[in-house]
Amino acid sequence: MGIFQTRGVAPANEAIEYNRELTMFNGTFNFPSEFRGPPTPEIDAAWMRISQGVKPTRLTLEQVLKIGKFDTPSKVKFREEDGGGYMASMEVTHQLHCLNMLRKYTYKEYYQNFDPSFTHPKPDVFRTHLDHCVEILRQHLMCTADVGMITYEWVTGFSEPYPDFNVKHQCRNFEKILDWGYRHAIHLPRDHVASPLAIDDADGEGSSEKLLVAGGVTPPSSSSLRVPWLVHLGVFSLYTIAFLGFFVFSFGQDPERPDDTCFLEHSMYCMTFPTSNLASKLTRIKAPAREAVKYSVVRFNGSLEFASPFKGQPTPALDEAWDRITTNNSLWPIRVSDEDLERIYKGGRASNVKYRELDGGGNMASIEVFHQLHCLNMLRKYTYPKEYPEVQELWKTRPNFMRSHLGDIKPHFKWTSEALNALADHCIDMIRQNLMCASDVGVISYDWISGWEVPFPDFNTYHRCRNFDAILDWAMEHRVRIPQDHMLRTGKEISLPRPPA
């Protein structure tokens, strides 16, 4: 969520509304959803509606400056006779587009013959697109740093504790924001978008291509500036200084601030804060990891060639970076009290996994963000089949596990076609629910860049983020290292729902 939206700057802020009822993320492996299952025209239409179906909107010059962007000569504008303004999009629809790209890759046998992304004559373009999407989603998940609690239960037929991914969250009303996007969409032919006659310094230090594709983070050099742009830069600087001063004053580290009502065990964040009775009730509920939550201003880098330690061709260093943020691809267990379980609506279950009293007692739980990043890492590895043959091998040794995680269709699967359609593409759907709950109304602007015939989106946007490292450190400090045979199994088990026959 762009930090510049916190006080109503983003155009779509007027559409932000919080659901009065808590939203239960459904992580059940065979949970039926309109977004899940083997590809159908209906599933593709559902994804199109929440992502690429939402067309760009327009910004005023004042809004461009307030979101931390510059009025450079390369900025994409609409013609004055069409109402003028600057082309822009909402971040949430781009994030969902990226997730849809990864979903399609898990069904590449279906999409590779007709989807434009798969049929591009240059395979490296598709590869760059996939890497970009993984990186954008990683930055989002680490920014939101969901501290919701995944609890564990004893389940019939399983010898190990089973994670309960069904967790309640306080969410933005995604449909309200989506409706705003459709109502404010600009439907104009491409030749009605004003293109500059020339872009100065097209290949120099200040070129848009360097800034947007290669990941530069400085404003254009003085050699490429025009006099009006200098005026806008001065205005922007005043906005930035004023905002940062207000930001530091308003969002300190005081854990009892009423503005933090949404940063509780329901884990999603509020940029404009609800005033309902539900919100006042939630102020008394505190997740165990909330004490580690701190905030800072972060600039997402969505440049296609941004050299991130988490992005690109797999290397030992890259894998080590992912292992660190996914806690070695495991859900590090922590200890929560019976009172904590009551607060997250999971108390009183006889099937809850408990530690023995001589080991300190309490209940087994994990933090959601590490599961979400684990899911994204699974998808990343799947897009590199040669580099991660062990992931492909899992299709042979654990086909049900991989099918439910990622969503590919394998001929040795024994269930009926109806059952396959009901199966959960678990990782895709968990991230989708996170993105739609957060409903990031941050603004993506567009530029003309050399070598591109269409407007190019500037994915480098500012956000108010949680300090992920502080939460990771908290998880390490509170990690419980107890053998499985020290966990109490009371005999009170639950059964998992079966897919339809």
What does this protein look like?
It holds the Pfam family UstYa. Belongs to the ustYa family. It comes from Gymnopilus dilepis. InterPro entries: UstYa-like. The chain is of the alpha+beta class and 501 residues long. It has a domain of 281 residues. The protein contains 17 helices and 16 strands. The strands form 6 sheets. It has a 4-stranded antiparallel sheet with strand order 2-4-13-14. The longest helix is centred in the middle third of the chain and has 24 residues. The chain starts with 22 loop residues before the first strand and ends in a 13-residue tail after the last strand.
The biggest beta sheet is recorded as:
4 strands, antiparallel
How far apart the termini lie comes to 42 Å
Share of β-strand residues: 5-15%
Number of strands: 16
How would you describe the shape?
globular
- Determine Rg (CA atoms, Å): 24 Å
Helix percent reads: 25-40%
Unreliable runs: 1-8, 198-211, 213-285, 408-424
> Structural class given helices, strands, pairing?
alpha+beta
Overall mean pLDDT = 76
* Widest β-sheet, arrangement of strands: 2-4-13-14
Note the main attributes of this structure.
single chain, alpha+beta, four-stranded antiparallel β-sheet, globular, disordered N terminus
Helix and strand topology:
Layout: E1 23-25, H1 41-50, E2 57-59, H2 61-66, E3 77-78, E4 86-90, H3 91-106, H4 108-111, H5 123-144, E5 149-153, E6 162-164, E7 167-169, H6 174-183, E8 193-194, H7 208-212, H8 227-250, H9 277-282, E9 295-299, H10 316-325, E10 334-336, H11 338-343, E11 354-355, E12 363-367, H12 368-382, H13 389-397, H14 399-406, H15 417-422, H16 426-438, E13 443-447, E14 456-458, E15 462-466, H17 468-477, E16 487-488
Antiparallel strand pairs: 1-7, 2-4, 3-8, 4-13, 5-6, 5-12, 9-15, 10-12, 11-16, 13-14
Helix pairs in contact: 3-5, 3-16, 5-12, 12-16, 13-14
